[in-house]
Amino acid sequence: MARTTAFQFRAGDSIFHRLDPLTKFAWVLTISFLAFGAYIAWVQIIITAIVLITALVFAKLSPREILRGTWLFLIACVSFFFIQTLTLPGSTEILRILDKPIYMESADYALASALRIYTIILGSLVFVRATDPRELAIALVTQMRVPYRIAYAFFIALRIVPTIEEEIKIIRSAQAVRGVDRQRGLMGRIRETKRYAMPLLVGALRKASTMVMSMESRGFGAYPQRTFVEAPQMGAGARVLCVVMLCCVLGWYTALAFGFVHSFYVFAPS
Amino acid sequence: MNVGTLYGIVVVIGAILALFAYMRNRGTGTVVIGFTLMEIVIMAIIGVINGVLGTPNAMLGRLFMTFSGSYGFLAFAAICGGFYISGPLCAYIIRKPGAATIAETMNGVAQVLSGNPNGVMVLGAGFLQGFMSDLAFAFYGYKRWTLGVVALSGALAPLLQQIPEVYFFGVGDMGLGYNLLALAIRMVSGAVYAIVLVRPIARGLAKAGVLRGTAIADEEGKTRLAGQVA
């Protein structure tokens, strides 16, 4: 059985799955706005905890699934944390490692910075795993008034994304059969990417072209409007959630703007 | 002059360029042109694939920022051209107003969905870089498709897009010279990436026969009929 991509929709019956796609998208945007507006560790810890609880409890993702989808980013974030803690300047020394001082400010900033990246990636994973791209396209048309041809084109593109990994394997095998060897090292990987990019793009466009022909032959795009048998609706609870999220973002940025919360940057000279 | 004034001037320049592009195309009836379904799908596919591939690029950017300290934002600027490709590429293939803007906006959505560490910022950034890329072609009434115009399209992409990044990455405090240098590096990077990648990719796709019904496919067909090598 082919291995499926972690960043791919899986049907489910969790609370998060049942939410309408636009509320879920608003949730991703809220997490992103809040995470980007804070360079303080304790704030990022709270945001990360909220996203983790959403992933584990409300979206019913298992810790294994979360790790599978984010392990590479997790390693990068842990590396960022250690590198920044060891290299950034600060004034309050908390400990020494191999005679190198570790400062409170740099550790705080490094933790906030690493958690911010991880939170945003985890938020995206939760959204993608719990949102049917087709429902998202329909919600864009019915609720956001996006022209349906654009929404469906985006849906086609999203459907092709999970197949990219599999396509790369096929291209790699096809090139190996023709005697093209796999390359090692960073430069080798970059050259490999160049070699895969064109066949990948051609394959994706060829598939899309077939889909477009099929859709047009069935009269898709013949009318300016389109109706749907089952369109996702934003319920009262979801509306309240959206208002709460909007208030959180506005409140947080107002607090930042008026200096109620101190947002500092270690890199910037004071 | 402080950094705030600098970006105020940048916004004014952007607005003047947009107004100039609008005036240039006002009488030609090319301000809004409908896209065929295939054209919309091409914009979506290129935007989304560039967006998904942009996420590892963004992680590389974070790595640069981490290792290079205060110079990280400048190092990141050097690879930013990779994010701007889908706009000039789609505009070059489709040759209609708005192609770059739509492609880059879809690129932004795809980056958010694929876990770009820069989060929601890439949504706004995508729209802004696509809009500015479009302006380069609009200056010539969507009639000139030379390498110079493609390079201009890549170079203009970061003009307004850098502003939200400056806020979110907090580099506004790094001084005027630093911010100007970052903008200059991004513009050069955008132009270089556009020069190196846009035409070869577009021609390659047209030759592969997957761009049926687009302007570049027509041009490719005429070139073949005339027995010339593109």
From TrEMBL, chain A:
<protein>
    <recommendedName>
        <fullName>Cobalt transporter</fullName>
    </recommendedName>
</protein>
<feature type="transmembrane region" description="Helical">
    <location>
        <begin position="71"/>
        <end position="89"/>
    </location>
</feature>
<dbReference type="InterPro" id="IPR003339">
    <property type="entry name" value="ABC/ECF_trnsptr_transmembrane"/>
</dbReference>
<keyword id="KW-0812">Transmembrane</keyword>
<feature type="transmembrane region" description="Helical">
    <location>
        <begin position="240"/>
        <end position="267"/>
    </location>
</feature>
<comment type="similarity">
    <text>Belongs to the CbiQ family.</text>
</comment>
<keyword id="KW-1133">Transmembrane helix</keyword>
<keyword id="KW-0472">Membrane</keyword>
<feature type="transmembrane region" description="Helical">
    <location>
        <begin position="26"/>
        <end position="59"/>
    </location>
</feature>
<dbReference type="Pfam" id="PF02361">
    <property type="entry name" value="CbiQ"/>
</dbReference>
<feature type="transmembrane region" description="Helical">
    <location>
        <begin position="109"/>
        <end position="128"/>
    </location>
</feature>
<dbReference type="GO" id="GO:0005886">
    <property type="term" value="C:plasma membrane"/>
</dbReference>
Automatic annotation (TrEMBL), chain B:
<dbReference type="Pfam" id="PF09819">
    <property type="entry name" value="ABC_cobalt"/>
</dbReference>
<keyword id="KW-0472">Membrane</keyword>
<protein>
    <recommendedName>
        <fullName>ECF transporter S component</fullName>
    </recommendedName>
</protein>
<dbReference type="InterPro" id="IPR017195">
    <property type="entry name" value="ABC_thiamin-permease_prd"/>
</dbReference>
<feature type="transmembrane region" description="Helical">
    <location>
        <begin position="6"/>
        <end position="23"/>
    </location>
</feature>
<keyword id="KW-1133">Transmembrane helix</keyword>
<feature type="transmembrane region" description="Helical">
    <location>
        <begin position="176"/>
        <end position="198"/>
    </location>
</feature>
<keyword id="KW-0812">Transmembrane</keyword>
<feature type="transmembrane region" description="Helical">
    <location>
        <begin position="30"/>
        <end position="53"/>
    </location>
</feature>
<feature type="transmembrane region" description="Helical">
    <location>
        <begin position="73"/>
        <end position="94"/>
    </location>
</feature>
